[in-house]
Write a structure and sequence with these properties.
Layout: E1 2-5, E2 16-19, E3 30-39, H1 41-48, H2 53-58, E4 71-79, E5 91-95, E6 106-109, E7 115-117, H3 124-129, H4 132-144, E8 151-155, H5 160-170, E9 175-180, H6 185-191, E10 195-198, E11 211-216, H7 223-226, E12 230-238, H8 246-257, E13 261-263, H9 270-282, E14 290-295, H10 299-307, E15 314-318
Parallel strand pairs: 8-9, 8-11, 9-10, 11-12, 12-13, 14-15
Antiparallel strand pairs: 1-2, 3-4, 3-6, 3-15, 4-5, 5-7
Length: about 325
């Protein structure tokens, strides 16, 4: 089978699409034919080994898993004798941030909280685009304690996390301000933003509006810069550690002091997030954004594009030649 391989940490240039042996199925595994996967921020961290903490989790000097990929949508083609929760021909999708070796034609997986059945009306591209960013977005929602009537700002609302978060926050009847570039203003309104700040023309941290919550889904601001736009007991949540890992320390100490505070969105277990995502898709209140699609043979180009910071929503890798609903 063909798979996207990297044997060392580095730039997209270290990725090669190679022919490797198809996985051997164990009794407690399912064999999945991969139809689609994405290249996302987590994949890029796994590729580059940055921040350095990724080395501690994936392999100190080189990655233990050489096949890339953290998410997938596909079809079960075989099951081990101990499997009774999934059947052959079921359409499934799943995600694990430490890597699933899913950027390949086939994948063997021990099913647990990382695998779920795709809703009938959802195709493979939509299914796989609903995973990584939405997983982290749901953790933002749970950590924030958001409720009806609150005023929230989402910085980076066109990204995979931000666009999912905007749609999830909309279900709480929050008053949402989103930041984006000029060409995406209408898109933000279509997803449910009440106000839009064009970051190419205005610094949102210098605005006059006050917010109960500032979600920094791209980690390009700081608690210090956002404090002036937070209400008295407002909350700042970022997807990144911040300079010198300050968000970890702030999340420990600011709640003790009182007033404006930082919360750090440590990801919730997939047992919480995947069923939540699936239910929102089934109800039609969450539709993931898809920027562009690449074939597996051009996956290095997909990584280059994602690392450029220009993507909107999700970048899809079509592994199989056919698209089946």
């Amino acid at each position: 089978m063909k798979a996207a391989i990297r044997r060392s940490y580095g730039s997209p240039h270290v990725i090669k699409v190679e022919e490797i042996q198809k996985p051997t199925l164990k009794d407690n595994e399912v064999l999945i034919r991969i139809f689609a996967t994405t290249v996302n921020r987590t994949d890029c961290a796994n590729l580059t080994g940055k921040p350095f903490i990724m080395h501690l989790m994936l392999g100190l000097t080189k990655p233990r898993k050489i096949v890339l990929g953290t998410d997938f949508a596909g079809v079960v083609v075989a099951t081990g004798k101990d499997i009774d929760s999934f059947q052959v021909n079921q359409r499934v999708f799943g995600f694990t941030d430490m890597g699933l070796e899913s950027q390949a034609e086939f994948m063997a997986l021990k099913p647990k909280d990382n695998l779920i059945v795709i809703p009938e009306q959802i195709d493979f591209a939509q299914a796989v685009a609903s995973l990584e960013g939405a997983h982290y977005a749901h953790s933002f929602i749970l950590k924030s304690g958001i409720h009806s009537g609150q005023k929230v700002l989402i910085n980076g609302a066109t990204g995979a996390i931000g666009s999912a978060l905007l749609q999830f926050a909309r279900t709480f009847d929050a008053k949402i301000t989103a930041t984006c570039s000029t060409e995406n203003i209408e898109l933000m309104h279509s997803l449910g933003a009440d106000q839009v700040v064009d970051y190419t023309k205005e610094d949102f941290t210098r605005g006059s509006r006050k917010y109960d919550i500032v979600f920094d889904t791209v980690g390009k601001s700081t608690f210090g810069r956002c404090k002036p736009i937070l209400k008295k007991n407002g909350t700042y949540i970022s997807s990144e550690l911040g300079p010198y890992s300050q968000n970890i320390f702030y999340s420990i100490f600011t709640p003790l002091i009182g007033g404006k505070k930082v919360k750090f969105p440590i990801p919730y277990p997939l047992t919480f997030t995947l069923p939540y995502i699936k239910s929102k898709m089934e109800k039609g209140v969450f539709k993931p954004l898809i920027d562009r699609e690449y074939p597996l043979k051009e996956i290095a180009k997909a990584y280059e594009y994602v690392l450029s910071g220009k993507k909107i929503g999700n970048v899809i890798i079509n592994v199989a030649n056919e698209r089946v609903l």
